[in-house]
Amino acid sequence: MHVNAIRAVGLFVGAAVLAVVVGWLCGAEKGAQLSTALVVCAGILVYLFGNSLALRAMRARPVSEIERPELYRIVRELATAARQPMPKLYLSPVRSPNAFATGSTPRRAALCCTTGLLRTLDERELRGVLAHELAHIRSNDTLISAVAATLTTLITALTAISFLIPLGDSEETDLPNLLGGLMVALLAPLAAVVIYFGVGRAREFRADEKAAELTGDPIGLADALRKLETGNRAYPLPRERILLATSHLMTTNPFPDTIGRLFSAHPPVQERIRRLHALRRKWDLG
User: Fold this and answer.
1) According to the 3-state scheme, what is the secondary structure of 94-118?
2) Alpha carbons 213 and 170: distance in angstroms, whole number
C-alpha cells in the first residue's frame, strides 16, 4: 500500500511538471501560470472525485443485497476469505461485460459490475472476476488508478480546448497561438500514455494470481477473461474521453480497437489466460 501511495504522488507530480513545461513552451509566463492553475484544479478533482470518477462515467448506482443477493453472497465470501473489508457494491447498466474497483483505501472501496457481466458469466467465472477486483483493492492498486483516471481525463480534455485558449501576448501572435495549440493537442495523448505506463501492466498479472489463490480456481478466471474479451468486441463502450480515461480500471480492456489499445493499461488477454493455465499445471504437479 505504501509503495502505491508513493507511486500515486510521483505520478501526480510528474504530470504536474509536464503540464507546466508544456504551458511554458506554448505561452511562456502566461502559459506556465495557466498550467499551474490547471494542476491545482487537478489536485482538487483527484481529492474530491478521484474515487467516484469511474462510477459516474459508467452511470453506476449502488445495488442492495435484496436486489442482488447472489452477488453479495459471493463478494462477502471472498472478502471474508481474503480478510479484507466488504466493499460497497455498484451496478452499471451496460451490456459490455466488465467489472472494476475504485477507492483510495480498502475501507473506502467500491466494486462495480456491469449488467452484461452478470448475464454473461456463470458463478464459477464470476467468482474469479470478483476475486481479481478484490485483489486490486487489497493491494491498493485503486489509489494510483484513481489518480491516473482523473489526470488522464483532464489531459484528454485539453485536446478539445487547446485551440480555444489564447496563450500569446497579443492579437498579432495568431501563428504562435496555433502552434501552441497543436503542441498541446499532440502532447496530451502522449502524456496520457505515459500516465498509463505509470499504472503498470504487471498489476493485472499480480491480481490474476492473487485471485486464483483466493478462489483456488485459475481456470474459472481464465474462462471468464475469454468471455469478457468476446463480449467487449460484441458490445464495445462508446469512445468517450472519460471512458477512455477510466478504461484501465476494468478487468479487461473495454475498447478492443486501435484507439482502445493505445489507451489500454492491460496486458493481452491471451497472455493472462496462458499464465493462469500454467499456474494450474504448476499446482497439479506440486
Assistant:
1) CCCCCEEEECCCHHHCEEEEEHHHH
2) 63
Give the CA distances from residue 278 to residues 113, 127, 281, 283, in Å, rounded to whole numbers and listed in that order.
27, 20, 5, 9
Place of cell 474497483: 101
| 125 labelled catalytic | no
**Residues 149-182 pLDDT 10s:** 666 666 666 555 554 455 444 444 444 455 455 5
pTM: 0.78
Burial 137-146 (b: 16+ CB within 10 A, else e): bbbbbbbbbb
Count the neighbouring beta carbons within 10 Å of the beta carbon of residue 242: 17
Residue corresponding to grid cell 452478470: 118
Do 102 and 110 contact (CB within 8 A), yes or no? yes
DSSP tag of 256: -
Instruction: Express each pLDDT in 67-124 by its tens digit.
Output: 999 999 999 999 999 999 999 999 999 999 999 998 878 888 999 999 999 999 999 9
Catalytic residue among 133, 172, 213, 271: 133
Rounded-to-integer distance, Cα 131 and Cα 121, Å: 14
- Does residue 118 contact residue 89 with C-beta atoms inside 8 Å? no
